[in-house]
Amino acid sequence: MEPENNGEISDVSENPQQEVVVAAVEESAVPENPAAAVEEKEQLVMNGAGDSARNNVEPVEDESPLKVPKAEPTVPCAAPEEPDRLPEEKEKEPAPEPLPEDQEQAPPQRPEEPRPPSPEKVQEEVEAQKVAAQTPSQNDGEEIEASGDKPAEVTEQEKDKQAEVAAAEPEKKGEPEKSAELPGAEAAPDQEVTLPSADSLSFPLLKDDKTKEALRSSRTLVVIRGLPGSGKTFLSHALANAYKDHCSVFCADDYAASAESDAREALDQAVGACCADAVSAMVVVDDANRARERLAHMSLLAREHGMVPIFLEPRTEWSADVARLAKLTGRKPAAVTAMKRQLDEVRLPLFFGWFLLASGRDRLRSAGADFLTALDAFKKNAVGSSLSEGQEVPLEQYFKSKGSLHCTTKFCDYGKAEGAKEYAEKPVVSEMYSSVFDLSVSALFVTPRTFGARVSLTQEQLVLWPADAEKEADPPVTGAGSLPTGSRAHITLGCAKGVEAVQTGLDLLEILVLPQVEPITDLELGSLKFYGEGRWMLELKEPLCVAACFSSYYKSGSSSHEQGKKESKKKRNCAIL
């Protein structure tokens, strides 16, 4: 650099304009002796004038080396040979390395301010180019740091938050987080992983307008489960964006603590308080949720607060890819495989079915109560009672409610029931899961053991109904196999003491296989028929339409299905009926 700087000094001494610059510098410096002034002038020319020339010329050289005329506006008072000399200086000087720290000393060059203001713009462009030139090296450094071992919790949390950002502003913040997410990966593969396809959000509660409108006015508990890095937080934020003020999201990562039990307890307390307050229509729980007991706890929480439980898993392209998830989260493939095995074991619920939303549930309960009251009055007036005074129990007290109101489509028993896996793997089951349907209640019925509502399914709803549901009645009901598909569809409104809800469907089949009888009276709600042995059916004048969400349910402990079948053989008759 020194020989070139000397060449610059000799050229500057021959140029009148450069002499003006030197003179201005001398006046501002005020040296004590001429010799020191000469040396200082040479030093300033080398460091100042040279830097000034580079500042003026460098952007032109970086953008287009052939656009020499752009240097002309910086020398309005120059001699005629000035434009010819500047390109020579530019050719002599090599392209500078990133400017040293002393570039901030450029302000002392202010004696050149009579020139057009282009140098300031040029300086800004130089600094912008420096930042752009340094950015790749910084990113490389980030990738090197990201390649080191990081705690799995931090990586998973960053991944889920990255997925949210990628969905909202993929161009803005996607790449820096990708490099930290996938160590050593190239930009293109990272973008493919962190930007899920449109199909990953193809849930009815996100894309179906009818379902979204219904869920905004009801109460649901959405439980998101899945492997680390599979996109749980991405899905939870999509729900928050879709339901906005109607939704509250609780992420397990936000309740992290030194002890896992403490974190879980804090999360459960927050979720329970939100469900009890009934402020949000939708409560979303973003957690691993890989244990049956955990899923059963969420089902029970929804039941206690009159909410519909919905269990969702991310549908990102890599949600079940062990190798990619291991790379994404920094975990060992064996650890991810073990988690996946645990998740697969509880993928099948206790049962699938339509769960009534709040408005439909209240209307059906009210209609059922009116029916029981009217039936009580009719029996006393027309039939009489065989019980002594004070011993007869009102029907509303005789039947006890059995949990949330729902219409079961398939009893799975966590995969133990016959045909459970085949049913769950049907594409229509996955496509319709979380959809809201309008169920048509056509009749109410009472037996000595159960109190229920008959549901008449549409062709759209029958695709979710198992074709052999009527034939597989256990214990079998003679003649049930010849009934139309969907005849067993019902909603249990109550059961006698010691009787399980599964008996309601069997009682309905027993009524339907009997010969038809004439109505014995007309009540306000419809025509009342009596089939003997305490079996009554009220055919409604107008079907009762109730909104219900197709979902699933989990329960702690062993299934009560077998116990229900044993209890159903007891006390087939009841004096009160």
In brief, what are we looking at here?
The protein is α+β, with helices and mostly antiparallel strands and 577 residues long. Helix content is 47%, strand content 14%.
Overall description:
- The protein is an alpha+beta fold.
- The chain folds into 3 domains: 139 residues, no CATH class; 148 residues, Rossmann fold; 217 residues, 2',3'-cyclic nucleotide 3'-phosphodiesterase superfamily (2',3'-cyclic nucleotide 3'-phosphodiesterase fold, Alpha-Beta Complex).
- The chain has 22 helices and 12 strands.
- Strands 5, 6, 7, 8, 9, 10, 11 and 12 form an 8-stranded antiparallel sheet that branches.
- Helix 12 links the parallel strand 2 and strand 3.
- Helix 3 crosses helix 5 and helix 14 crosses helix 15.
- It is elongated and about 95 Å long.
- The N terminus and C terminus are likely disordered.
Write the layout of secondary structure elements.
Layout: H1 2-14, H2 16-29, H3 34-63, H4 82-92, H5 118-146, H6 152-168, H7 170-181, H8 187-194, H9 204-207, H10 209-216, E1 220-224, H11 232-243, E2 247-251, H12 260-277, E3 282-286, H13 292-304, E4 308-312, H14 322-329, H15 333-345, E5 351-356, H16 358-383, H17 395-398, E6 406-411, H18 420-424, H19 427-432, E7 436-446, E8 450-456, H20 459-462, E9 490-495, H21 502-512, E10 521-522, E11 526-530, E12 536-553, H22 561-567
Parallel strand pairs: 1-3, 1-4, 2-3
Antiparallel strand pairs: 5-6, 5-12, 7-8, 7-12, 8-9, 10-11, 11-12
Helix pairs in contact: 1-3, 2-3, 3-5, 5-7, 6-7, 6-11, 7-8, 14-15
